[in-house]
Design goal:
CATH class of the largest domain: Mainly Beta
Strand content: 35-45%
Distance between the termini: 77 Å
CATH architecture of the largest domain: Clam
Largest sheet: 12 strands, mixed
Number of strands: 20
CATH topology of the largest domain: outer membrane lipoprotein receptor (LolB), chain A
Number of domains: 2
Shape: globular
Order of helices and strands: HHEHEEEEEHEEEEEEEEEEHEEEEH
Length: about 350
C-alpha cells in the first residue's frame, strides 16, 4: 500500500500536466495587451530558468555567464513593480535581492553579509549587469514586449499549455529584423490577468529554447511586511553599503570613450551613459563598452573565440546561442572594446573594425 501511495503521489504532476487545457479565445493583440497590463499584479511563486548560451567566462563578468548557462532556482514575491524580492537558491545558501522603492538590498546567506545598494544621486545615470531577477518569467516577458513595441516584431497565438497547474494562453513574438539572432520568443500567460507563466527564447532555426523560464507554482499574494524586510543585523553578520555601479564587476573599469552615433549601419539609442553605447532596435541590439584592464583577450581565446585581425587592432569573435560577442583591442591602446548583443557576428565585426581604426 505504501508503494502504491508513493507511486500515485509521484504521478500527480504528470497527471496534472495531462489534464485538458481550455482558455478563452483571445487575439494576439488582446493577449499582448493583457501581458503588458499585468506589471502591477501582486503575486508570489517559485520559478526556474534554464539557459544554455555557451558563453565563456570573461574577467569580472562571471556573475552574468553563470546565469546564462545552467539552472537558476528562484523564489519570488512582488507587491508592486518597485516592491519585490527574489531569492536565488543554491547549494551554498541563498542570495536574496530586495527592491524597496529606490533602495535595494542584497543578502548573501553563505557570507552572512547584507549589502544596502544606495540609489544614484538625482540626474546621475547608472548601469548594471543582468541579475537573476531579470530571468523571472514576468520580468523577462515584459522586457521582451517593451523592447519590440508594435513594429519590431510579428505577433501570433500559440496552442494553450498547462503551466504551474494552470491553463495558459500562448503568444509568439517573432522579430522582423533579419540581423537578430533570436528566432522567436514564446510567452504563455494567464488568459484572465495576463500574468506571464513561462517564456521560451529560441535562436534562429533552433528547435529547442536556449533560454526557458517558468513558474512551477504561482498565485496571488497579499503584501506581508516581514517578507519584504531584509534580515536584521545580528552578531556574526556583516553589513555594508554600495552604489549600484560598484557591484558591476568589469563595468567598474569602463572608460569614457567617444562612441559614434552609428555603427555597422545601426543607430545608437539615446542614453545618459556616455561610455556605454547601445545600438539597434527591438530584439536586434548590441552594446559597446570600452574597458580598461582585465585579460579579456586571453579569456576570449581560452573560451574558443575565433581570432581576427582588424586594420588597426586584434580581437576574437565568440559565438553562442542567442548572443554573439567580439573582444577587440586597438594596436596602440591597452583598453579593450567589448561588443555583445543579439545580432550576427558579422555585424559585431563591422562595429569592431570601426572602433579600432585610429583608436589610441
Amino acid at each position: 500500500m505504501v508503494a502504491v501511495l508513493v507511486a500515485v503521489l509521484c504521478a500527480l504532476p504528470v497527471l496534472a500536466s495531462a489534464l485538458p487545457v481550455t482558455v478563452p479565445t483571445l487575439t494576439a493583440s488582446q493577449l499582448r495587451a493583457r501581458i503588458l497590463g499585468s506589471a502591477g499584479i501582486s503575486y508570489s511563486g517559485y520559478a526556474e530558468s534554464n539557459a544554455t548560451f555557451g558563453l565563456p567566462e570573461l574577467s569580472g563578468l562571471s556573475s552574468v555567464t553563470s546565469l546564462l548557462d545552467g539552472v537558476t532556482k528562484m523564489r519570488v514575491w512582488q507587491a508592486a513593480p518597485q516592491l519585490w524580492r527574489v531569492d536565488v537558491l543554491g547549494d551554498d545558501g541563498e542570495r536574496d535581492t530586495y527592491q524597496l522603492g529606490s533602495t535595494g538590498y542584497e543578502w548573501n546567506s553563505g557570507a552572512q553579509l547584507l549589502t544596502e545598494v544606495v540609489p544614484a544621486s538625482k540626474g546621475t545615470a547608472t548601469i548594471r549587469l543582468p541579475r537573476a531577477a531579470d530571468l523571472v518569467p514576468t520580468a523577462l516577458a515584459l522586457r521582451v514586449l517593451s523592447l519590440v513595441g508594435t513594429s519590431a516584431a510579428r505577433f501570433s497565438t500559440l496552442p494553450p499549455l498547462r503551466v504551474a497547474g494552470q491553463s495558459a494562453a500562448g503568444l509568439r513574438v517573432t522579430p522582423t529584423d533579419p540581423a537578430s539572432t533570436i528566432g522567436s520568443v514564446d510567452i504563455w500567460a494567464q488568459p484572465s490577468t495576463g500574468l506571464p507563466l513561462m517564456v521560451e527564447v529560441f535562436g534562429r532555426g533552433a528547435r529547442t529554447p536556449a533560454l526557458e523560464s517558468q513558474f512551477f507554482q504561482v498565485g496571488p499574494w497579499k503584501l506581508t511586511a516581514n517578507v519584504l524586510t531584509p534580515p536584521v543585523r545580528q552578531p556574526g553578520t556583516g553589513f555594508t553599503t554600495a552604489s549600484a555601479s560598484s557591484l558591476n564587476g568589469a563595468l567598474n573599469n569602463l572608460e569614457f570613450e567617444p562612441l559614434p552615433a552609428t555603427l555597422a549601419g545601426h543607430h545608437r539609442i539615446p542614453s545618459q551613459v556616455a561610455n556605454v553605447g547601445v545600438y539597434g532596435s527591438g530584439l536586434a541590439q548590441f552594446a559597446v563598452l570600452a574597458v580598461r584592464g582585465g585579460n579579456f583577450l586571453g579569456d576570449a581565446q581560452s573560451g574558443g573565440g575565433t581570432p581576427y585581425r582588424f586594420p588597426d587592432g586584434i580581437g576574437f569573435l565568440l559565438n553562442a546561442s542567442l548572443i554573439n560577442a567580439v573582444v577587440a583591442q586597438p594596436d596602440r591602446s591597452s583598453d579593450t572594446f567589448l561588443i555583445v548583443g543579439t545580432v550576427s557576428g558579422k555585424v559585431l565585426l563591422q562595429a569592431a573594425t570601426t572602433l579600432t581604426i585610429g583608436a589610441s
